[in-house]
Design brief:
The chain has 265 residues and is α/β, with parallel strands linked by helices. It contains eleven helices and nine strands. A six-stranded mixed beta sheet has the order 1-2-3-4-6-9, sandwiched between helices. Strand 2, helix 1 and strand 3 form a beta-alpha-beta unit. The mean pLDDT is 90. Belongs to the enoyl-CoA hydratase/isomerase family. GO terms for molecular function: catalytic activity. This is Methylglutaconyl-CoA hydratase.
Length: 265
């Protein structure tokens, strides 16, 4: 029996394939539950260094599962609707804060909530045929749970335009908007992905995790004074850690650094 979320571990790279082409890999409650469980697994599995998210079939993900939304206005459904909304929001939050590199490989289409997966990731490879849109307003909805992560990548003016009109845009546009990192033909994606993963795996895992945390913290409403204290403390701790010792020694000795999967400060 096919699973709606395929898992593939190769070395220290963990790939999740959304595998429900019949629903266009929609973010159904079941899909959200599976994604949340697997993201938590990645967080707690030291051997996994990088997470890759992809979609089976003719597109990446169509966003919300509208079939599950159709009964939302029925009497007595309020708590269930709120529970599902919070589960979706928590999944995006967990992905965004994952202390390991996250790569999305996108093709075909990415609508609504699918852009939340993209915006909460670190590097996005896309096929040039990919079409995207914030389609929520055309359905009487709002892109609420994905908005904090889209705002990390897009300027407010472009968000207003695209979210209020719901108009479609292509992968090249998405690069200009800051949503996608690189557009490459589908035939070249395996090679590009291999090169990217190689680069990510050369990084020190603890340093990568702390780097992501600092990026998120600098976007919060911290005063510059507090951030000076915080960032200088983090740098001092990292300089004294095993990863820095190995990385600097390798540089001076003109060799490739050999980072353990988990170094301690």
């Amino acid at each position: 029996m096919d699973t709606i979320l395929e898992k593939e571990l190769k070395g220290s790279v963990y790939t999740l394939w959304m595998n429900e082409p019949s629903s266009r890999n929609a973010l159904s409650p079941a899909m959200v539950t599976e994604l949340t469980h697997e993201i938590d697994y990645v967080i707690n599995t030291t051997e996994i260094r990088v997470l890759v998210i992809r979609g089976r079939g003719d597109g990446f993900c169509s966003g919300a599962n509208l079939a599950s939304f159709s009964k939302s206005g029925n009497p007595g459904m309020e708590l269930e609707v709120l529970r599902e909304s919070r589960a979706l929001a928590n999944m995006f939050c967990q992905l965004n804060a994952l202390p390991k590199p996250v790569v999305c490989v996108v093709h075909g289409y990415a609508y609504g909530g699918a852009i939340g997966l993209i915006a909460a990731s670190d590097y996005i490879l896309a096929d040039p045929s990919t079409m995207m849109s914030f389609s929520e307003v055309k359905l009487g909805l709002v892109p609420a749970t994905i908005m904090p992560y889209v705002a990390q990548r897009m300027n407010e003016g472009k968000m207003r335009e695209l979210m209020l009109t719901g108009r479609r845009f292509n992968a090249e546009d998405a690069i200009d908007f800051g949503l996608i990192s690189e557009v490459t033909p589908s035939i070249s994606i395996p090679e590009k992905l291999t090169d990217l993963l190689g680069s990510l795996l050369e990084g020190a895992p603890l340093a990568q995790g702390i780097c992501k945390t600092l990026i998120l913290e600098t976007r919060c409403n911290h005063s510059f004074h507090n951030m000076v204290d915080h960032t200088s403390t983090v740098l001092a701790e990292m300089r004294a850690g095993d990863e820095a010792k190995e990385g600097i020694a390798a540089f001076l000795e003109k060799r490739k650094a050999k980072f353990n999967r988990r170094h301690e400060l």
